[in-house]
Specification:
Helix content is 20%, strand content 33%. It has helices spanning 16-26, 72-81, 101-104, and strands at residues 9-13, 30-33, 39-42, 48-53, 63-69, 86-87, 99-100, 109-114, 120-125.
C-alpha cells in the first residue's frame, strides 16, 4: 500500500476558457486558475477537481462528475434556466431525462448533462 497525503480527480476539456465559463458561471462552482494553464474546481465540501486543456480531447463515455443536489426537479429547472439541456438515455428515464430511481428501487433520482467538451456530468438527489 502507498502512503498518500491527499487525492484529486481530473479530466480533459477541449477549450479551457469555455470550461471556465461553463463550470464557473453556468454551474456556479468555485473555479480558479491552476498551474500550467489548467483550471482548479473546488467542489462543495472541498474536494478538488483538475480540468486540463487537451487539443485532441475526446469526451469520456461515462460520468466524470456527479453533483449532489437536494431536489432533482429544482436542480433540473436551474440547469434549464442556465441553458444546459439534459441528456435522455431512455430506459427508466422520464420524458425530461430524469431517472427516478427512488420510485423504481434503482438508486437515487439522477439526470445527466454534458459539459461543452462533451464530458458526461450528472446531478443526483441526496
Amino acid at each position: 500500500m502507498i502512503t498518500t497525503t491527499s487525492a484529486f480527480s481530473g479530466y480533459s476539456v477541449g477549450d479551457i476558457e469555455v470550461a471556465r465559463t461553463f463550470y464557473g458561471s453556468q454551474l456556479g462552482l468555485d473555479v480558479s486558475d491552476g498551474q500550467m494553464g489548467n483550471l482548479s474546481i473546488t467542489l462543495p465540501g472541498g474536494a478538488p477537481v483538475l480540468l486540463y486543456p487537451k487539443d485532441d480531447h475526446v469526451p469520456a463515455t461515462f460520468t466524470v462528475l456527479n453533483l449532489v443536489v437536494p431536489e432533482i426537479d429544482a436542480a433540473v429547472a436551474e440547469l434549464e434556466a442556465a441553458g444546459i439541456p439534459l441528456e435522455n438515455y431512455g430506459g427508466y428515464a422520464d420524458e425530461r431525462g430524469i431517472l427516478r430511481g427512488k420510485s423504481v428501487g434503482m438508486g437515487p433520482n439522477i439526470a445527466w448533462f454534458l459539459d461543452p467538451s462533451g464530458n458526461i456530468l450528472s446531478i443526483l438527489e441526496e
